[in-house]
Amino acid sequence: MGFEFSTELDKGLVQRIQELLNLDNQTTIKIVNKVRDLFFASSANNRYYIKLAAVKIEFAGKDFIWYRCVKCGKLSPFKIGAYCGACFDSTDLVPIGESDLSRFDFWRIPILNALNKIETIHTIDTEEHTAQLSHKEIRSDTWSRTEKYEMRFQDINAGENGEDSIDVLSCTTTMEVGIDIGSLTAVGLRNIPPMRENYQQRAGRAGRKNTGISTIVTYASGGTHDSHYFLHPDEMISGSPRKPWIDRDNPKIKQRHFNMLALNGFMSTPDMKTQFDGIVDIGIITFCEQYGENFIAFAKAMDLPIDETIRQFCEISKNVLAEGKRDEYINNDKETLAFDVFYREGFIPSYSFPKNVVRFFVEKESERGKNAPRDIQYAPERDIAVALSEYAPGRFVTIDKKIFQSGGIYANPRPRGFETNQAEFYFKNNDYYKDIYICSDCNWFGLKQEDSPGMVCPYCRAAIVQNKMLRPWGFSPVRGDEVKFEDEDEQYTYAEAPYYSYVPEDTRMNNYVRSNIRFANLPDRKVLTVNMGKSKNGFNVCKKCGGAEVADANPNGIFSFSQPYHDNHPLCRHDGTVATNIFLGYEFLTDMFMLDISYDSMRLVGNSNAEEKCILRAAVTTLHEALKKAVSLVLDIDYSEINGGWRPRIKSDGNSHIEMFFYDNLTSGAGYSSLIGSILDKVLDRARKILSECECSRSCKNCLDNYWNQRNHQLFDRHLGLQLLNYAELGQLPAEYNVSEQKTLLVPLRKLISDDKDTPQPNPPITFEVVPALLKKPENTSTRMFLSPYDLSDWLPNAFMTYRNLISER
């Protein structure tokens, strides 16, 4: 209960008690306060909880009468006067006895048998099996926590009498990755998996080792993806999975393998082999400083296209050995491994594993004593694009049945020389803390003031907002400890749609035959992902300890956060060390493809009113999705390899543009986006088939809908998307509806008009004309009303009210 105890009680309950006891408001408040004092206790955060010492469990005897409410369906052991003791609203109560309770025997009988000492209570031990628990200390841990749980689940190391065995494992997708868990008898899925192969992999865990009976239960939630497969389960549980595929001809991926061959060959030379076990055994500073020239000489002698290898290595080496940069690659007197740096910079193959990962560090006291640096207890990791939302200050992170609230930016180990002020090292580093310039209207960003002369967006000419951006190096919980879920409020903030530094006037755009389409391949372009906090107020971050909080719109200079870790030193007081309104984000290089549609906003819907904006959004979102799917099909790559978005530049003079962008999800790019321009004719042709050949009304699983685009399902309209594609590629405006088509579309409106007996029939009558949705509608007159198909379906009540208003205005 909240601090305002009396006002948070159910008003129906209070009302019935007042009526039953004939109490006035003042007396009722006194009684409620007395109940609060006797049976509730307050917590540190001004909430009330039931005081367990003041209550007890009362067992109902065999003759006890329970009541079932016909209205709410709930059982209650008492009535409030004549009213239901659960909903306090209905007097239609049915007494039920012992025989009627038999449907609850699954839960009742074990308790009754335990009370009667017939048998003991059976407990079910449940543990978590997720990647969050996979961390282990190399020095001291033989097994990770997930591995220990796997063994106990198989009754290995489960105690002398099996007392430590685990009955249920609550798993994430980690269970898909080749883990043999023995004679598993049942699998329960809390939602429908994305793809058929995901379902088959998870469900196939049950019944592997001669189990007589195995059960798979899948719960379907109310979303569009789950609902579809609930109605069509055969599409998920049967059929062949997709064939695995590797792109052997991708030039970027080829180059990374050439680089790896050069590194492996160099590390296998007699001189290097006698000193190091491999590239995973040498620090990046040592490699670049002492062996860089030798590596270049070795690479030049190889019979491979190695020029790009040398260029990329020289760039990395220059960055590592630059003045002031070395400390970034040294932690606790240990150099960052060369392999890790080469992997992070895209120099060697990544095999689709994310490179820009950050961890959520939960520490424990070191086995070497209180004065030693703390060890890592948990260290779940996420791609930084996801972590910016899921690990942001204020968010809850659940690990091993414990709840932690993110309290700041932190990493273990701390940088050398900054053990007591770990954040200061990063705030002094331009790679982590920098100025950014973001357009207030579109998704353009720049990192230098020269990018935005006059603080005006070079893309759309809107105002530029300057702010500081911090790239998180890790996250950690408030005070380094778990929290009670009920004692804290979770604060939700999310990363924005990607920003990118692209200006059409600065880029040569290619015309696509005789169409309204221009395009450009943009390799190695910067994309920005940023979390701006609530209402773009950012976060307050201590530049000494890294503690952080979500910033308010009206700062008062008082900060409520603490340092995000345990320490033997005095607590950080944040005296003059707090940077306010900081954005959290990072920029990365990837390959992009831009498609620009010259758009006539004088004849087609624009942004003049809410209806036009809604139709334009549906049309562009649909076409973008169709193009994205078409790219994945033409290139024969996974749908998730390509990401993107769109933005309009709608102008009052009609000289408008719609810009769509696509980029490789793989950091540093995989080269897919830069190939789109060379296959654009095939992409447009496949997109046309996707939008035109399906038989659904707007969209379905066979054309546009899938697991990953669920939040856009309500926007998809393949007819609108096809109209926009025809205009973009062929210059065709949507075709007018014939008389028969208009008559069919007008049926719902005419039915409402005929059923409305209160509105007189106008004379002369109002005529209707149905206009394709993408076309701009003419203004209504006193005798003529223009409608789109959306007016006659989604917005039918509004169309009917517009009709009535036209009549009343005569």
Tag the structure with descriptive keywords.
20% strand, 33 strands, globular, alpha+beta, 21 helices
| Poorly predicted regions | none
For the record, give the distance between the C-alpha atoms at the N and C termini, rounded to a whole number. Answer: 57 Å
Helix content: 25-40%
Counting helices, strands and paired strands, the structural category is alpha+beta
Large-scale geometry:
globular
Ordered list of secondary-structure elements with their pairings:
Elements: H1 5-8, H2 11-21, H3 25-39, E1 40-42, E2 48-50, E3 66-69, E4 75-76, E5 79-80, E6 83-84, E7 93-96, H4 105-115, E8 126-129, H5 145-153, E9 168-171, E10 186-189, H6 196-203, E11 215-218, H7 224-231, H8 234-237, H9 251-267, H10 270-273, H11 284-300, H12 307-320, E12 330-331, E13 334-335, H13 338-344, E14 357-359, E15 362-364, E16 375-378, E17 381-383, H14 384-390, E18 396-399, E19 402-409, H15 422-427, E20 433-439, E21 445-446, E22 464-470, E23 475-477, E24 499-500, E25 510-511, E26 517-531, E27 539-542, E28 548-550, E29 578-600, H16 610-635, E30 642-649, E31 655-664, H17 680-692, H18 718-730, H19 739-745, H20 747-755, E32 767-770, E33 784-787, H21 796-808
Parallel strand pairs: 8-9, 10-11, 22-29, 32-33
Antiparallel strand pairs: 1-2, 3-4, 3-7, 5-6, 12-13, 14-17, 15-16, 18-19, 19-23, 20-21, 20-22, 24-26, 25-26, 26-29, 27-28, 27-29, 29-31, 30-31
Helix pairs in contact: 11-12, 16-17, 16-18, 17-18
